[in-house]
Structures are given as C-alpha cells and as structure tokens.
Amino acid sequence: MKLLTARSELLDDLALLALRLTSGGYLALHGLSKLRGGVEKFAGGLADKGFPLPGLMAWSATLAELVGGTLVAIGLVTRPAAVSLAITMVVAILSTHAHQVKQLGTGGGVGFEYPSLLAVVMLLLAVSGPGRLSLDRRLFKA
After folding, report:
1. pLDDT for 67 beyond 70
2. Residue 5 falls within a domain, yes or no?
3. 130 close to 137: Cβ distance less than 8 angstroms
4. DSSP state of 97
5. Does the residue 142 lie in any domain?
6. What is the largest CA-CA distance in the chain?
7. Most buried residue among 34, 75, 83, 84 by CB atoms closer than 10 A?
C-alpha cells in the first residue's frame, strides 16, 4: 500500500511539473514575443482601446508573462507568480477577448479560450502549489 501511495504522489508531482513547464513556458514565450515585437506597439493597441497608462500596462503584462511564466515553469515563488499571471489573463480576457465568448465551440473563440484556460490553470497552481519537483520545494520546503 505504501508503494502505491508513493507511486501516486510521484505521478502527481510529474503531472504538476508537466503543467508548470507547459503553461509557464507558453506564457514566458508569449511575453518574449511581446518584447521582441515591441512593447510600444502593444501599448499603442491598449491606448487605442482607451486604457489609462497604456505603456505601464503593456510593460506590466509583458513582464508578468515573461518573468512570471518563467518562475512558474521552474517552480520558484510559484504561488505569487501564478496569482499575478491569473490576474494578467483576466485583464486580457476583459479588455480584449470577452466579445469572443459567444463564439466558443465555433472555432472563433480561440482568442478567448487561451487566456481563460491559462487563468484557470494559474489559479489552480496558486492553490495546489508547485509540487515536490520544484525549486520552491528545494529552497523553501513549500
């Protein structure tokens, strides 16, 4: 019975590791693409939508995705990074993708699906923690 429990815990930790690496990695790459594409261009899009302080918001989202995604992927300060990313995704949904919710299931709702799925994943990682295969566990015994 002890072996089954240990095997189950290892599978749980491997699942969390895979989830962190993929979701955090995707978000980090998304932030990197904003950085490479020009944060000013992203800020211009926010300004066109009437957002206050579009430059600050653009840099905040870019760094949240790039740095926060990297931290989640490696499992370092995972819970705060995941909360920051969940908030970033909710802002993206409300500011840019909310109108696409009516297109769910038609192939046209992908713009809404991606940030909403990532928001849920980040909230779940904030609740569950990073698992044993993380820097948080090694450094902080979290």
Report:
1. yes
2. no
3. yes
4. I
5. no
6. 60
7. 75
Buried b (16+ CB within 10 A) or exposed e, 12-22: ebeebbebbee
Q: What's the rounded Cα separation, in Å, for the pair 117 and 88? A: 12
Dig out the tokens for 35 from the structure. 């950085």
Q: Helix H segments across the chain? A: 2-37, 39-48, 54-63, 69-74, 78-92, 110-128, 135-140
For residue 98, the enclosing domain spans 10-136
Decide: 54 and 43 in contact? Cβ < 8 Å. yes
- C-alpha 26/C-alpha 85 separation (Å) is 12
In this structure, the number of other CB atoms found within 10 A of the CB of residue 69 comes to 27
pTM passes above 0.85: yes
The number of residues in the chain equals: 142
d(CA 69, CA 28): 4
Evaluate whether 23 touches 122 at the Cβ level (below 8 Å). yes
pLDDT of residue 141: 83
Residue 40 is assigned to a structural domain of this protein: yes
Q: What are φ and ψ of residue 61, in 5° steps?
A: -65, -45
Cβ atoms of residues 71 and 56 within 8 Å? no
d(CA 35, CA 64): 12
Examine residue 86 and state whether it is found in any structural domain, yes or no. Answer: yes
